[in-house]
């Protein structure tokens, strides 16, 4: 017979992804590619237009590789995935038919609370709510949706979403087994490798990665080596695809600082989360990394 987890996972067919930026558009792409019906939501209509363009371009890239010798099949694959995707600027309307609502909006607890509280009132009772937050507590976010304490968890993807295989599945103390199993199965259906995490700051990857990036900046700040040499060291000596400064520029120095500052406030005794002068200076100068054309490196 069917286990309850299989029944629950079979139920996730309609996904509403809220936030059409870098992460949301990536998640929408991989879900649509995997045959899910996806509605991508953003408050900004222009963002949705840009997201559709980048998803179409990325799907073309995937098709070119996957259907190297059968371009007609590649075109079918792209058209099929795009047909699974729609957009909306009204989150509440989009959530009405969702089995899963995944939030990937700004990293701001108040804004996330406002969104989830309005969705809690209108989404179907069975719908699972999940956040893609990098650094906030899932349980704290879930407080805005009291109706679905048990149907709430974290689904944390990595940038670039179509390439990075990992999915962190986060359980709060209230997440039901059924919800957890459905999230794990959904991740696998998307072609990701899900791991299980408790609801702790940064879960697994960011809890290790952010302090590592911070330590790299501190090392350079002390004058122990240059940023360029540290990057060479970690690529050639530890096999990382990017050095810590390339990666910090890629993730965004503003984002890195924002995560550290949030944790430092919450955990003032943790030396790994302490503010860093060199990082703060870069951010104060508007040097956020790749997205602004300059960070530790120049991209102009
Ligand atoms: N979308 C779709 N496909 C992409 C892509 C994108 N944005 N970027 C790269 N690709 C594809 C390419 O088409 C290419 O595919 P094939 O090899 O199959 O042809 C493949 O990915 C590799 O790309 P490139 O050859 O252009 O470049 P690369 O080999 O240098 O790899 C990289 C690029 C995958 C980004 C690699 O450098 C890498 O893994 N870097 C580390 C990324 C990382 O650590 N991400 C996590 C950041 S932390 C985070 O996300 C969590 C958080 O909460 C902040
Ligand atoms: P982004 O700025 O690229 O996109 C966020 C989008 O959300 C914007 O387009 C904005 O218009 C939209 N938005 C804001 N408030 C909204 C609302 N109330 N309703 C609907 N749309 C709204 O951000 P991003 O980098 O995609 O990050 C999104 C989330 O994912 C954050 O919580 C972040 O911490 C997390 N995350 C980011 C990364 C990364 O590397 N950038 C990796 C993993 C997780």
Automatic annotation (TrEMBL):
Residues of the 3-hydroxyacyl-CoA dehydrogenase C-terminal domain: 202-299
Coiled-coil boundaries: none
GO MF annotation list: (3S)-3-hydroxyacyl-CoA dehydrogenase (NAD+) activity; NAD+ binding
Keyword Hydrolase on entry: no
Location(s), subcellular: Mitochondrion matrix
One CC-aspect GO term: mitochondrial matrix
Keyword set, alphabetical order: Fatty acid metabolism, Lipid metabolism, Mitochondrion, NAD, Oxidoreductase
Entry EC number(s): 1.1.1.35
Pathway the protein contributes to: Lipid metabolism; fatty acid beta-oxidation
Signal peptide positions (record): none
Site (Important for catalytic activity): 156
Chain sites annotated for binding NAD(+): 19-24, 42, 107, 112, 134, 159, 291
Main location: mitochondrion
Pfam families assigned: 3HCDH, 3HCDH_N
Family matches, as InterPro entries: 3-OHacyl-CoA_DH, 3-OHacyl-CoA_DH_CS, 3-OHacyl-CoA_DH_NAD-bd, 3HC_DH_C, 6-PGluconate_DH-like_C_sf, 6PGD_dom2, Mito_3-hydroxyacyl-CoA_DH, NAD(P)-bd_dom_sf
UniProt-listed GO biological process terms: fatty acid beta-oxidation
Entry's family note: Belongs to the 3-hydroxyacyl-CoA dehydrogenase family.
Protein name per Swiss-Prot or TrEMBL: 3-hydroxyacyl-CoA dehydrogenase
Source species: Cloeon dipterum
């Amino acid at each position: 017979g069917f286990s309850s987890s299989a029944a629950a996972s079979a139920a996730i067919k309609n996904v509403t992804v809220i936030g059409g930026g870098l992460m949301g558009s990536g998640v929408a792409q991989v879900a649509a590619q995997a045959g899910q019906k996806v509605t991508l939501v953003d408050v900004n209509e222009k963002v949705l237009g840009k997201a559709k363009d980048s998803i179409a371009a990325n799907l073309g890239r995937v098709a070119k590789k996957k259907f190297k010798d059968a371009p007609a099949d590649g075109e079918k694959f792209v058209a099929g995935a795009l047909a699974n995707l729609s957009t909306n600027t009204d989150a509440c309307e989009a959530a009405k038919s969702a089995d899963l609502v995944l939030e990937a909006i700004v990293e701001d607890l108040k804004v996330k609370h406002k969104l989830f509280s309005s969705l809690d009132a209108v989404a179907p009772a069975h719908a699972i709510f999940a956040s893609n937050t990098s650094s906030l507590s899932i349980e704290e976010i879930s407080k805005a949706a009291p109706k679905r304490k048990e149907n709430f968890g974290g689904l944390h993807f990595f940038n670039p979403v179509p390439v990075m295989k990992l999915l962190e599945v986060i359980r709060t103390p209230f997440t039901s087994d059924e919800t957890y199993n459905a999230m794990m199965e959904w991740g696998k259906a998307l072609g990701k490798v899900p791991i299980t995490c408790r609801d702790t700051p940064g879960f697994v990857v960011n809890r290790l990665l952010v302090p590592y990036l911070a330590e790299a900046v501190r090392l350079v700040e002390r004058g122990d080596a240059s940023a360029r040499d540290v990057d060479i060291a970690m690529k050639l000596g530890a096999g990382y695809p990017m050095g810590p400064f390339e990666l910090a520029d890629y993730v965004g120095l503003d984002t890195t600082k924002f995560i550290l500052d949030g944790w430092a406030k919450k955990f003032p005794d943790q030396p790994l989360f302490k503010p860093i002068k060199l990082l703060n200076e870069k951010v104060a100068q508007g040097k956020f990394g790749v997205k602004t054309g300059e960070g530790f490196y120049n991209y102009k």
